[in-house]
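Q: Can someone sanity-check these two? First one:
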Amino acid sequence: MSASASRLPGGCRHPEWQTYWEHIYADRDPAEVSWYQAHPEHSLSLIDDTGIGSTARIIDVGGGASTLVDHLLGAGYRNLTVLDIAAISIERARLRLGERASQVNWLVGDVTNFTTAQPFDVWHDRAVFHFLTNAQDRAFYVESMRNALTPNGQAIIATFSDSGPSQCSGLEVVRYNPAALSNTLGPCFHLVETLTEEHHTPYGGLQEFIYCRFCRNSEPATGL
């Protein structure tokens, strides 16, 4: 694995997203964004619940500024990938990790345009999917996730709940309950486990998240 971030071939489907998030991270310290967590308790718990071993392949989508990768390295996981649309967020994570950054595969790209030659055992996304307000972008995301996972691979997705905010970082979001999220992902994924989190932002606000763990069905997908 390389400590440097690789840009995905094919470019971004939405270059305006990349510009927007580059500005967000340029203006704020990673610990100042509203979704920051020093210890991503629920994500770690759900990853542990998958039952995967330390050599399993895990991708953290939108994880450039997240500390999840730090904790996964500390827990002994050895095949980690972080994907983010903002190169600056990945650069800051690499600097934070120091020498340990070389143990992670860093990718810059648009998740709705993501492909991989080596499928993952676990797909993790906290606070990316709810920004996809367009149905076609959600369909592209689901197709990317399905194709990126091994048969019977698992997906952990956290979004704002029905009681969560309707906007974040100046953008509209789509709020979900577990049934709605499961319906949006479609028949390729079946819901296994859910958790609810009351997330306290660095500025003293409160955001309610739902976390859902899905298993990818092994049969071919249809309709995407």
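And here is the second, same format, sequence then tokens:
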Amino acid sequence: MTHEKLKKIALSKPKVKAEYDALEPEFILLREMLIARKKAGLSQAEIAERMGTKSPSVTRLESSLSSGKHSPSINTIKKYAEALDCHLEIRLVQN
């Protein structure tokens, strides 16, 4: 079974779909972080060095966003962005 097929089956269940949809902001942020790191051509170890931390911390940061188990602080995400020579923008958007 492919990932896409499994995902389609799982998302057909209302409770699973609701949980998945609730994680959308984290998935968007993670995707943007990974794209920025790739564009910069930097490894997690290089980002960690620029942030003044260890590589496992960056691994935890990136994986925490995909798992939804932990929300990193804005300050941590800001440091990550700065390590990529980026800045963090946060907006509230009316529904």
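A (reply): Looked at the second one. The helical segments are 3-11, 14-22, 24-40, 44-51, 55-67, 74-83. The mean pLDDT is 91.
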